[in-house]
Design brief:
Rossmann fold; 23 strands; alpha/beta; 3 domains; 17 helices
Length: about 500
């Protein structure tokens, strides 16, 4: 077919001890969005890295517009019109957004001796306008939110005018409005004949944006179908090779009446205003809102990672002074950051070290020696109880899947005897099977009496997992809803209320 842009046949790739791809095939047509799905470790990112020239296949052929090609590296792929947006951000934080977009391709003046910063900024601004993105090209990437950094990555890829664009989890850090704008850009590119490969764990997005879906499992090709003709349940079954029930496991019926955490009058100039809420033992309290609403800022303030101007934090009925994360840990509070690789884990260290890191003093003798037998026993205990898939506790965390990395972070805070656990985007970047395991784990922790705050940008996740939902907008709490009252429409109403008077349920009495 002359509308086929890319055809990959018999692609195999092995790494030491792992057969990552086994006789895989994939096809991409002009002007289509082709979703590539599978659990973590299924091989989808590896297959696309072969197409992008990052990996060289051990076997197989690739044709581009009907012609066999050898893709010698990422530069060769870009020259052929193939560009990839990686799941992990690949930006230089000390440079501006515009400099990141055009690095290595900067326009010059003065016989090529001087970079033309004005033209770089103008070209970047034109890209941002095309994406309907309010972003200063001269802003340093280090000062941008994760969502804005992701949009810079997308702009960088679009700047190559690629015929084949591979997007690996492009919406993982985006708000609903930003996703809407991304989808508008994708549809515009599709209309211009660009072929787009869309890798995502958010299966509900696929129905909105993709034309076809290819499923991979355990490094092998499984099936390809028209998106309009295959139910989500069938996609999940093909992905995992077993039935995953999308409905949430039942929450513990009634949290304890005992208040585990109370926050009163929390303020930080320009960031948070008069935050008041309580959290019970055995309760999962969902925090919803658009990106920038202040949800993560509340978590970081409670955990002592950011300073506050005023307010009180009360743990188990006692007012506490938390000036640093160390103070928070001492009071039984654990924080699982939205960026687990940057703030939650030491990825170059092994599972054992990460599990005991927040409570190392428990394993240290009088002479300062670490009791390795105890750390090993503790790590193995949590590997078992949390079902962490790893060859051993000596495995480096960087080699684990996203879901298993998240479980290691949970094990770390359980080792530290944390009674209050703050989960910030707990299922970001992990597949549907691992999500199901995380949901079950959160519910089990609640049954054990742990008090849980769950921050999530996925409204279905908030609705299925929360006893109550706190909604924020522009640094304020604008709504507090029971599980019976919480709907996507109600949450979005309060998420866009800005400074208006909040709804407060009489049984909650938290929002101001």
């Amino acid at each position: 077919m002359d509308d086929v842009l890319v055809r990959m046949e018999g692609i195999s790739k092995a790494f030491p001890g792992v057969q990552a791809l086994n006789q895989c095939r994939f096809e991409l047509r002009r002007g289509e969005v082709h979703a590539l799905v599978g659990e973590n470790g299924a091989g989808k990112s590896t297959l696309m890295k072969v197409l992008a020239g990052i990996y060289h296949p051990d076997a197989g052929t690739i044709t581009l517009k009907g012609q066999p090609v050898h893709i010698g590296g990422p530069g060769a792929a870009q020259h052929l019109g193939i560009c990839i947006i990686h799941q992990e951000l690949n930006l230089m934080p000390h440079l501006t957004a515009a400099q990141n977009i055009f690095i290595g391709r900067e326009p010059r003046r003065g016989f090529g001796l001087v970079l033309d910063d004005r033209l770089i900024n103008e070209q970047a601004e034109a890209l941002f306008k095309r994406m309907h993105l309010d972003l200063d090209p001269k802003a340093k990437v280090a000062d941008l939110t994760v969502a804005k950094q992701q949009m810079v990555e997308i702009a960088k890829a679009l700047s190559f005018n690629s015929e084949v664009l591979i997007m690996d989890e492009p919406t993982a850090a985006l708000t609903e409005s930003e996703i809407h704008e991304l989808f508008r850009v994708i549809r515009d590119l599709r209309a211009k004949g660009v072929g787009l490969v869309y890798i995502s764990h958010r299966l509900e997005e696929l129905k909105q944006i993709s034309d076809r879906i290819t499923v991979m499992r355990d490094g092998s090709y499984v099936d390809t179908a028209q998106t309009s003709e295959i139910p989500v349940e069938r996609v999940i079954s093909l992905m995992v090779g077993r039935t995953i029930y999308e409905s949430a496991p039942e929450l513990p019926e009634h949290p304890s009446d005992e208040i585990a955490l109370e926050v009163r009058g929390l303020n930080r100039a320009g960031v948070l205003k008069d935050i008041n809420f309580s959290l019970k033992r055995g309760e999962i309290l969902g925090f919803a809102g658009l990106m920038g609403a202040g949800r993560t800022e509340v978590a970081r303030a409670i955990f002592g990672a950011d300073p506050i101007d005023s307010g009180e934090v009360i743990v188990r009925g006692q007012k506490v002074h938390i000036r640093s994360p160390k103070d928070a840990v001492a009071h039984g509070i654990g924080y699982l950051s939205e960026d687990r690789k940057r703030f939650g884990l030491s990825t170059k260290m092994d599972v054992e070290t990460n599990v005991v890191l927040a409570a190392l003093e428990k394993f240290t003798g009088l002479a300062g020696w670490v009791r390795e037998r105890d750390t090993r026993t503790t790590a193995e205990q949590y590997v078992g109880s949390l079902s962490i898939k790893t060859p051993s506790v000596r495995q480096k965390v960087v080699n684990l899947s996203g879901g298993n990395q998240q479980k290691v972070v949970i094990g770390k805070w359980l080792t530290a005897n944390s009674d209050v656990l703050i989960f910030d985007e707990p299922t970001r970047g992990i597949d549907v099977g691992a999500k199901s395991e995380i949901y079950k784990l959160l519910n089990e922790l609640a049954r054990q009496g742990k008090a849980i705050i769950m921050i999530s940008s996925e409204l279905p996740e908030i609705l299925r997992m929360s006893h109550r939902v706190i909604v924020m907008c522009e640094g304020r709490i604008t709504g507090s809803l029971t599980s019976a009252e919480a709907t996507q429409e109600a949450i979005m109403t309060f998420a866009t209320q800005r400074g208006e008077r909040a709804f407060v349920h009489p049984e909650n009495g938290d929002a101001q």
